[in-house]
Amino acid sequence: MTEPRLVYKSGEFVPESEATVSIFDTALMYGDMVFEMTRSYNQAPYRLRDHLERLYAGIKILEIDCGLTIDEMEAATLDTIDINRDRMPEGIDYQIMHNVSGGPMALYSSVFPKGIKPTITINVWPLTWHIAPYGPKYESGIHCVVTAQQSVPARLIDPKIKNRSRIYYQMANILARKVDPDAYALLTDEDGYITEGTGNNFYIVKDGTIFTPEGRNILRGVTRAAVLDLSAELGIPCVEKNIEMYDVHTADEAFISSTSMFILPVTKFNDLPVGDGAVGPTVKRLISAFSGTVGVDIVAQAHEYAALANAD
Ligand SMILES: Cc1ncc(COP(=O)(O)O)c(C=O)c1O
Questions:
Q1: Ligand 1 centre from 172 Cα, in Å?
Q2: pLDDT of residue 117
Q3: 142 and 270, same structural domain?
Q4: Which residue's CA is minimally distant from atom 4 of ligand 1?
Q5: What is the distance in A from the centroid of ligand 1 to the CA of 241?
Q6: Cα–Cα distances in Å, from 43 out to 40, 259, 312?
Q7: What local confidence, expressed as pLDDT, does residue 1 receive?
Q8: Best mutation site among 167, 259, 298 for ligand 1, i.e. most ligand atoms within 8 A of its Cβ?
Q9: Hey, which of 39, 219, 255 would you mutate to test ligand 1's pocket, going by the most ligand atoms within 8 Å of its Cβ?
C-alpha cells in the first residue's frame, strides 16, 4: 500500500487533506493568489525555472512577501517531488502545482495564535487523469468556440499574472459547453481579436507560417515559449499578430498549447472545419519533434494513461 502524498504547506509537509486555505486568507478575500502548473516528462520537471520565474513576476507585482527566494522555492519544489516519489505510481509523469498568497489577513490574527504566515503550497499529482482524455483528441482534433465572454483587458486584470481570479475563464467554459459539451472556449479582446483559451494559448497556420496572438491580453504560456523555440529550431516561421475569426476560418491548421497537453490540434472552429477538417502536417511535425525533445511519445502516453484511468 503506497503512503498518502504530502503537500509542502508554508514550510512543512502535510497530508493532502490538510492542505487547506483559510477563509481569512487574501486568496479568498481578494482572489490575489498566484499559481503555477508545471509537468514532468520521464519524471523530470519540464521548464520548472520558467514557471517559477512567471510565479515570481506575479509575486512581485502583487507585493506578496512569500518569504522564499526563487532558489529556495525551487529547492522546496524538488524536496516535494522527492518526498512523494515513492508515494506516486512508478514511471508515471506528474504535475507540480504552486499556489502562493499573502496568507491570512492581519485583521484576523487572533484566530492564529501561532502567527500568520504567507500561504505557499506545492503539491504533486499523477497526470494519469489529466492526460487520459487527450489520446483521441491528438488524432481527431478539438472543436473551439468563441463565446460571448471576452477576455478582461490587461489594464483591468492582467492575465500575464497567473492568478486565481478566474471567473471569466469559467464563464467562457460554461457558455462553450452550451454550444457543444466537448468544445473548448476561446476568448476575444475588445476589438474581437482572439486572445487565448481558458487554459491554453492559440495558434493558426497559414501557408506554412504559424501565427499566434501578441503577448498583450493573454497569459504568456511556458508552452507558448516552447512552441516558439521549437518552430525556430524546425525552421517554421512563427509570427505574433492579431488574429480575427476570419483568419481562423481561412487558416490551413489551428492548435492550442498548454503545459499538460503540449499542443492539441483544432480541427473545428465555431462549428466549421479548420482547413480540410483533418489534423494538419505542421501540428503533426510539432508533436513529433517535441516528443523527440522530451523523450516521451506524448500521443502514446495519452493512450497509455487512458488505459490506466479506465482500469481504475
Ligand atoms: C489562461 C491560460 N492561458 C494559457 C495557458 C497556457 O500556459 P502554459 O503553457 O504555461 O501552461 C494557461 C495555462 O494554465 C492558462 O490558464
A1: 15
A2: 93
A3: yes
A4: 200
A5: 18
A6: 5, 14, 21
A7: 58
A8: 259
A9: 219
Q: What is the pLDDT of residues 111-158, one digit of tens each?
A: 999 999 999 999 999 999 999 999 999 999 999 999 999 999 999 999
**Same domain, yes or no, for 158 and 298?**
yes
Statement to judge: residues 138 and 244 lie in one domain: yes
Using a 6 Å CB cutoff, which residues line ligand 1? Answer: 37, 169, 196, 198-201, 219, 221-224, 257-259
Kindly state whether residues 214 and 278 are assigned to the same domain. yes
CATH of the domain at 222: 3.20.10.10
What is the per-residue pLDDT for 312? Answer: 74
pLDDT digits (tens, 9 = 90+) for 211-255: 999 999 999 999 999 999 999 999 999 999 999 999 999 999 999
Flag whether 1 is in a domain: no
Query: 148 with 216, same domain?
Result: yes
In angstroms, the CA 274 to CA 284 distance is 15
Q: How far is the CA of 201 from the centre of ligand 1 (A)?
A: 6
Residues 226-237: b if buried by 16+ CB within 10 A, e if exposed: bbeebbeeeebe
pLDDT at 2: 79
- Cα 16 to Cα 123: distance, rounded to the nearest angstrom: 8
Query: What pairing do the DSSP bridges indicate for beta strands 142-146 and 194-197?
Result: unpaired
Residue owning the nearest CA to atom 7 of ligand 1: 221
Q: Same domain, yes or no, for 114 and 175?
A: no
Whether this model's pTM surpasses 0.85: yes
Atom number, ligand 1, closest to the C-alpha of residue 169: 1
Residue with grid cell 473551439, as numbered in its chain: 144
Count of structural domains within the chain: 2
Q: Are 87 and 194 members of one domain?
A: no
pLDDT < 70 positions in the chain: 1
Considering the domain architecture, whether residues 144 and 50 belong to the same structural domain is answered as no
Range of the domain at 182: 134-307
Pocket test for ligand 1, best of 157, 258, 261, 264 (most atoms within 8 A of CB): 258
Question: What's the CATH number where 119 sits?
Answer: 3.30.470.10
Q: Is the dihedral of CA 191, 199, 60, 240 positive or negative?
A: negative
